[in-house]
Structures are given as structure tokens and as C-alpha cells.
Amino acid sequence: MLFDQTNVFGAYLIDLERRTDRRGFFARAWCPKEFGARGLSTGLAQVNVSANVRKGTLRGMHYQRAPHQEAKVVGCIRGAIYDVVLDLRPDSPTYLRWAAAELTAENHRSLYIPEGCAHGFQTLMDGAEVLYLMSEFYAPGHAAGVRYDDPAFAIEWPLPVACISDADRAWPDYVSRPDLRKVQP
Fold first, then answer.
1. pTM for this entry
2. Which one of 31, 52, 97, 124 is at 20 to 30 Å from 161 when CA atoms are compared?
3. 2-182: which CATH number, 3.20.20.60, 2.40.50.140, 2.60.120.10, 3.90.1150.10?
4. Residue 67, preceding peptide bond in cis (omega within 30° of 0)
């Protein structure tokens, strides 16, 4: 695997190191030794799939509060997405910065989202499917989020939002949430 640091501290774009022959290619998509060598989370508690009907669907920006913070490795297994990581770690050198990458079934890229960062994506075509490797189990009482269009972050989404959940649309402005600014998410 090839790890490329994004402009969010600890978030990596991961490309496969392909072994190609006449049949196609083979590559590792997950290796705890390679993740651990970079100081990244190696825990794997769940694998989740998100199927999305419409182009322009937006999911995010989600994270889990302590003590159930989670790292994620996200990849697109059908279609294409615009994937975003947002740094909500007050002690991080990239606090409140975001990074994005286009993940597609064809490029086989994935994005590593560290604990304490919010994550979201927008589908770039109908029928996009996303695979998540999660370091922690889902803890409903610790699930949280920030709004995808919050002016505090100025995330640039590539398409108009065609579909979004009521919950994702309703998160309050970050500046009005001192609970997020005082403690790590």
C-alpha cells in the first residue's frame, strides 16, 4: 500500500500497490503491520457498506465522541464519491482544516480518517457504494456530527446536494457549539 499524507494531520490517501499480470492485478487493501508502522489505528471492529441511489447524495459529517472515537478506512466499491475528512481535534496542527479526494471503483483509492475527525462524502454518480473499515463499534449514544455546509469549515462540495438526511441537514453551527471547541470529539 502507498500512503500519501493529506493536508489533515494523520489522514492519508491510500493507493494500492498492484501486482499485475495477464489476469489483472492483486493488491493488499488492509494490513495492520503497514498501518501500525505509521502510527495509525490497526483495530478493526466493523465493516460497513453504504449504498446510495442518487448522484449528489451527501452523507456526513459524522464522528463518534470519546470514549468511542473511531478511525475509518473508506473506499468506493461501485461508482464514485467525493470523500471529505474534517479535523475536529483542538490540539491538532490542522484543527478545523479539511481534505478531500475522489474515490472510485476504478482507482481503488481509500482514505484513512483518524480518530477525532469528522467524515462525509457526496456521490458523484447514481448507485455509488461505499465500504468502511471501522476501528470501533457503533455507539449510538456517542454518535455526533457537524453540518456539511457550516461556514466555519467552508467545505467545497462538487455538486448541489440532491439527497441528505434530516439529521445531517440539522446540525447546529459549529461556532454556536462550545462543547466541540473545549474538548476533543
1. 0.93
2. 97
3. 2.60.120.10
4. yes
